[in-house]
Design goal:
There is one protein chain. Strand 6 (70-75) and strand 7 form a beta hairpin. This protein has two domains: 6-82, Phosphorylase Kinase, domain 1; 85-221, D-amino Acid Aminotransferase, Chain A, domain 1, CATH 3.30.470. 28% of the residues lie in helices and 33% in strands. It has six helices and 14 strands. The longest helix is centred in the middle third of the chain and has 23 residues, at 145-167. By secondary structure, the protein is α+β, with helices and mostly antiparallel strands. Strands 8, 9, 10, 11, 12, 13 and 14 form a seven-stranded antiparallel beta sheet that branches. It has a five-stranded antiparallel beta sheet with strand order 1-2-3-7-6, with helices on one face. It has a two-stranded antiparallel sheet with strand order 4-5. The chain is globular, with a radius of gyration of 17 Å. It binds cytidine-5'-monophosphate. The site of cytidine-5'-monophosphate has 14 residues, from strand 9, helix 2, strand 12 and strand 14. It catalyses: 5-amino-1-(5-phospho-D-ribosyl)imidazole-4-carboxylate + L-aspartate + ATP = (2S)-2-[5-amino-1-(5-phospho-beta-D-ribosyl)imidazole-4-carboxamido]succinate + ADP + phosphate + 2 H(+). Pathway: Purine metabolism; IMP biosynthesis via de novo pathway; 5-amino-1-(5-phospho-D-ribosyl)imidazole-4-carboxamide from 5-amino-1-(5-phospho-D-ribosyl)imidazole-4-carboxylate: step 1/2. Pfam families: SAICAR_synt (PF01259). This is Phosphoribosylaminoimidazole-succinocarboxamide synthase.
Length: 239
């Protein structure tokens, strides 16, 4: 494969090779999907908003000692990131009960959790991304016990940092999903994106949802909510 060729296309992003074998170009798309791809739409402007929001979060985490794949934004829709082999796990951290946790443990949406809950899901569309524990992860050889421990520790640190940043902006961090990869030296690196597509954000004053739940639940004003998040983060054009 040559520089410029598409390496991978996902539901929300495309990845392209660059001249540097250790660097890939990520292009955010305007497409929105939910419920394992069953619900789809094109939301004009979402790609740019997520590129810009993800840039701010990854830069902030890097500035606060969380190594991650992010290098720099290069256009409204694109950023350069370190090339990693993505681990087939989604790491979810929850501060407040919402989404699938309501059904799993029977608590109602909005119930505060006494301490953050960390969950691992196996990234497999055909299986519907099932919840897995450490033994499943070992059985499937998805990550070593040490990598699982590291992912948990980093995810909890990310939670503390993001919660603090967002609280200052009157945003409650309800929950979020992270993905990790292994770089060329086999080192664990926080990767993928951090945006309203992958987090739940509630306005601290009104409880209004400012994330992908607006799309999942047909609440309308999806792009406007993402724009609100970017505005509060002090988002500025980076090109
Ligand atoms: O749907 P659920 O309640 O399990 O989602 C928990 C968190 O993980 C939410 O912030 C959701 O946006 C995120 N998530 C994600 N990608 C998935 C599943 C969940 O970004 N495939």
């Amino acid at each position: 494969m040559k520089a410029g060729e598409m390496l991978y296309e996902g539901k929300a992003k495309q990845l392209f090779l660059t001249e540097d074998p250790n660097v890939v170009r990520v292009k955010y798309k305007d497409s929105a999907t939910a419920f394992n791809g069953e619900k789809r739409a094109t939301l004009e402007g979402k790609g740019e908003l997520n590129n810009r929001i993800s840039t701010i979060f990854f830069q902030y985490l890097k500035d606060n000692g969380i190594r991650n794949h992010f290098i720099e934004p290069i256009s409204p829709l694109e950023q350069l990131v370190r090339k990693v082999e993505i681990i087939s796990l989604e790491v979810v951290v929850r501060n407040i009960v919402a989404g699938t946790l309501c059904k799993r443990i029977g608590l109602s949406e909005g119930t505060a959790l006494p301490r953050p809950v960390v969950e691992f899901y196996y990234k497999d569309d055909a299986l519907g991304d099932p919840l897995v524990n450490r033994d499943h992860i070992s059985a499937l050889n998805l990550a070593t016990p040490d990598q699982v421990a590291q992912m948990r520790e980093i995810a909890l640190k990310v939670n503390e940092l993001l919660k603090k940043l967002l609280a200052e902006l009157q945003i409650i961090l309800v929950d979020f999903k992270l993905e990790f990869g292994l770089d060329g030296e086999g080192k664990l690196l926080l990767a993928d994106e951090i945006s309203p597509d992958t987090c739940r954000f509630w306005d601290a004053g009104t409880g209004e949802k400012l994330d992908k739940d607006r799309f999942r639940r047909d609440l309308g004003q999806v792009v406007e909510a993402y724009q609100d998040i970017l505005n509060r983060l002090g988002g500025k054009k980076h090109v």
